[in-house]
Specification:
Length: 171
């Protein structure tokens, strides 16, 4: 009922949504529900659009380098984005802000339960995580290709290279 109302009266073609990540362990650390919740929302949104006879789209928003997000997690998100043919324009690199649980995890290197977590630090890793989410950009090609090659992600690298070639042809 709510989605029908939203689609009929309040969406102007694109609805911005914030799944923020794809990997459930990262989403848990962010205090977000499982990615299955986003999938369910997307399905219900699509149904509401069909019922309203409208062609609207979701515009997903993602965060890179959140505490607890490893490079493997970033690659998994990239695989998902490629599989969906998504090329997100809105990606935010994690920035610690005062009084946030994520900032406490960033500083302590631990989750809320006291378990040690990976905290992306250093310019290279933070840049790489952001580049993986915007894998389609020519400016990220070298960094993404080097990482995928080194990590034995030949299939994903091949898919990304096809996208780079297609984007170059469009220009």
């Amino acid at each position: 009922e709510y989605l029908d109302l939203l689609v009929k009266h309040f969406v102007g073609g694109h609805l911005k949504v914030a799944p923020e990540h794809y990997c459930d362990q990262v989403l848990r650390l962010m205090g977000k529900p499982s990615f299955d919740c986003f999938r369910e929302f997307e399905s219900r949104f699509d149904e509401a659009c069909r019922r309203a006879g409208r062609e609207y789209y979701l515009v997903p928003y993602f965060i890179s380098s959140h505490p607890g997000c490893t490079l493997d997690d970033a690659v998994k998100l990239t695989e998902y984005l490629v599989s969906r043919h998504w090329q997100p324009r809105q990606v935010q690199d994690f920035v610690p802000v005062p009084l946030a649980r994520s900032t406490a995890m960033y500083v302590a290197g631990q989750d809320a339960g006291g378990r040690k977590i990976h905290v992306p630090r250093g310019r290279h890793e933070k840049r790489l995580q952001a580049a993986l989410l915007q894998y389609y950009r020519h400016s990220n090609a070298r960094l993404v290709a080097e990482h995928l090659r080194a990590g034995d992600h030949a299939g994903l690298l091949k898919d990304v290279q096809r996208i780079w070639a297609a984007n170059r042809r469009r220009k």
